[in-house]
Amino acid sequence: YLKDLFTQWRGLLAGYDEGLVKGDAVLATAVWRNVFGGKEDVDLVGLGEVVSYLRGVLKGLDEMEDEVVADGEIQFGDPRSQRKVVEVRSKLLDSLPREDGDSSKK
Asked: Which of 15, 48, 51, 103 could be cross-linked to 30 through a Cys-Cys bond (beta carbons 3.0 to 4.6 Å apart)?
């Protein structure tokens, strides 16, 4: 049982590592699979909030002094604080052709 759990843990970490390197879409896939259980009816805004939150937390940790981390003086916020960031419309999405074939911008 522990061996299986360890294998799953390594897969989870590999998925997050890949997402951190390859971008938010890959990271979102790992979060969707591991946090949201791969459910088809996932709340996409919530998923985006978690991905944005992870990026922000990692940036914050990277900027901290080692002593602060070692002393455990870290406070984490709420992923829902990222809602405004997630709701900003992507310029890239506006440039892609729509499913109805219309590529005009909104």
From this structure: 15
